[in-house]
Amino acid sequence: MTEKKKRKDVIRAGTTVEQMVRAVADLIVTGQMQPGERLDELSLAARFDVSRTPVREALRQLCAMGLVGRQPNRSAVVTNVTDSHLSVMFEAMAELERICARLSAERMTVEERRGLDLMHRASMRLVHAGDQEAYAAHNMDFHTRLYRGAHNDHIFEMVTQTRARLAPFRHAQFRLAGRLAKSYAEHQEIVTAILRADAEGAARAAYAHVSIVSEASTVFAADHR
């Protein structure tokens, strides 16, 4: 199968804007699209065999993520996401997740704690199978439960916005050898603390987890530039 055919198949599997964003973000993070490369709507529509409508929305979202830059009346271009920029975003993410984990340990209902634990345990089969895509989806759900468990709408809004900007890099980390198993173990530390209502323990575990994710994501991005 040619590389062009593979790229089109990614989008044809639903032709949603979300899939378009993930496909282009992946090409940027892995270095297949280089900083300064133009991303005009017609070329992208032809490249992925879609109309210009999803392309426009995908570019808007990629701009919001900081992966693409755009000036009035000009084509969008791939931006240069530096290690220092990634570092400060992950630093903010770690602090926000620390807060969410601490509040979740204090505020989650019995049902919410049980649901988090069962969901976490079920993900072990994904680790054993080495299913990176399915585990990445699980990871999103796992962290969303932490954010919801804090029972603070303002914090939820801030943390989800920050996560959206880091999503391509957090997703890429699972391509590193052994990362699924390590992620599971890190999640276990968070879950254990929350089940014990150990607010400070949950906060420490969540902060450490995001710090490790930051390092893994930065390593992956650097290796593929």
SSE map:
Elements: H1 3-12, H2 17-29, E1 38-39, H3 41-48, H4 52-65, E2 68-69, E3 76-78, H5 83-107, H6 110-122, H7 124-129, H8 132-149, H9 153-172, H10 179-195, H11 199-223
Antiparallel strand pairs: 1-3, 2-3
Helix pairs in contact: 2-4, 3-4, 5-8, 5-9, 5-10, 5-11, 6-8, 6-10, 8-9, 9-11, 10-11
SS summary, helix count: 11
Overall tally of domains: 2
- Return the string of H and E elements: HHEHHEEHHHHHHH
Q: What share of the residues lie within helices? A: over 70%
What do the pLDDT scores average to? Answer: 86
- Computed CA radius of gyration, to the nearest angstrom: 18 Å
What is the count of β-strands?
3
Portion of residues in beta strands equals under 5%
Question: How would you name the CATH homologous superfamily of the largest domain?
Answer: GntR ligand-binding domain-like
Named CATH topology of the largest domain = Four Helix Bundle (Hemerythrin (Met), subunit A)
Q: Indicate the CATH architecture of the largest domain.
A: Up-down Bundle
Query: What is the CATH C level class of the largest domain, in words?
Result: Mainly Alpha
Any low-confidence stretches, pLDDT <50, length ≥5? 3-14
**Spatial order of the strands forming the largest sheet:** 1-3-2
Helix-strand category? mainly alpha
- Largest sheet, strands/sense/barrel: 3 strands, antiparallel
- Write down the overall geometry: elongated
Cα end-to-end separation? 24 Å
